[in-house]
Amino acid sequence: MGEERATYEELELESNRLARLLAEAGLRHGDRLCLALPKSLAAIVAMHATMKAGGVYVPLDIASPAPRVAKILEAAEPRIILTAEAAADLLDDLSQSGELSSPVAIGSVEGTLEREGWKSSFERSDAAAFSADHVSCSTGPDEAAHLLFTSGSTGTPKGVVITHANVLHFVDWATSYFETRDSDRISGHPPLHFDLSTFDIYATLSVGAELHLVPPALNLIPHKLAAFIRDNELTQWFSVPSIMTYMAKFDVIRDGDFPALERVIWCGEVLPTPILIHWMERLPHARFTNLYGPTEATIASSYYTVPDRPATETEPIPIGTPCAGEALLVLDDKLTPVETGEVGDLYIGGVGLSPGYWRDEEKTNAAFSSWPNGSERIYRTGDIAKTGDDGLVYFLGRADSQIKSRGYRIELGEIETALNAIDELSECAVVGVESGGFEGTAICCAFAPAEGSEVQPSDLRERLGVVLPTYMLPSQWLQMDVLPKNVNGKIDRKRLRELFESEQAA
Amino acid sequence: MSATPASDRERGDQPDELIVDQLRDLFRDALNIEVASPDTDLIEAGLLDSLALVELLFQIEQRFAIDLALEELEVDNFRTLARLSASIAEQANATE
Does A246 contact chain B (CB < 8 Å)? Predict the structure, then answer.
């Protein structure tokens, strides 16, 4: 990334040394190690070193507010936190709230970090004292490789356990399907705490290709993203749809641009068909593939390569057919398959399924079940789907209040929980509204101030920003004296969505 | 606008306080974002994402009657209110 480069030899030797240093620092088989690191080469070395030492890594979003990171630390109970200067302010905040007290050890992937309240107990240069020889590792394929924390509806992020076998199965399928080879030059666009990044990293490294980490600041300037693809002569681009939409809206792709680009892949939410057409018309030499799947089923579970430019702008793009070893099931509420063309709940089975949520049997049992007759585990995605006459599966929406905004998976309940903690509000509700813009679903908040309060959206946004990451903050606000209710006395969310939609239209 | 980082520009060193104040109001009123100081790093503080940036540029065009084109911007041109005010002042001078 940027000027930073490493060869495979350097990655191997550095991660061997670091694995031994981590073991010396107390990391034992199965222990968690939190990566409080920016997207960087150092983070990738640290992932490998952690796994070689038998540990389980937990990538943290260092742009997230400290209270949210604290919840993840409390759940993960790491033995070690690896960090760098760029995350020092976050660690300062965590230290103040007592999250960094022993037995957790803090290591720096740079020089020694000494701050008020905490300091690193080892640093990068300490690894030089250790052997770079091959590390023999006893971790089994069904043991955890990493934990990925996603938004939880009750306000606490939940940790999805991903095993080595989960990742390997997907990588095997993907490198075979996409015919990935060592001459490939592959983008690393998603943040490292996002499960899609594991596809970029491990598929690239498994074939000996080049991984080009995309600096996050480029996301603000679509022209820079296009220049990144062009200048690095990338052969594969993989991102969430909102980034592709952003680039299309600013028309940054020229006709026949990116001549080296062979594959454009997206995942995480629906790519609007007009945007797909925009890309396909400009890049007739590239292959376009939609991937689908939640973190709980590891990166993606189904795929659909678009054969031709869609005929109309309203043609839906299917999520397609299951990847090898996976199953997509459209079931009714008795877990019986529905007929072709009928709408049902989408379940996933097969080799990608996570063992469950980290130390949360209740949530695991609620989402993962057995089918049929206890012979196979299936995961309830919460998505609504149908199988078309073409035998392909089509995504139709959500069964609950989870939304996707700019590719991020967000439980609206997590935002409401944070809002409910604000005294100046008598009532509030958060709904998702299709924006027609590049962010996908817009997060909209309706609120009624408490008696005597003159709370403003800017105040609420600031207060929420203390506990929630930026991508969860509402982009539209509606102040009301009292929120609309349905006949049961519950907040009428459908009515609120209509109100926001009419505001957008105006 | 040139590709030169704002810090290297002679004129960019002194933020125009009037523009900074207007920008602060614009952030509050149009984006619902409170910016603590003219030197707050908007990106590192997580205040500015692509959605907010596009709205911001639109609002700047409306309010300052200048064309601040995204394709000619560097991230450093809008990293802080101070830098952004310098970018606006420069663009206003260029179009006079």
Answer: yes
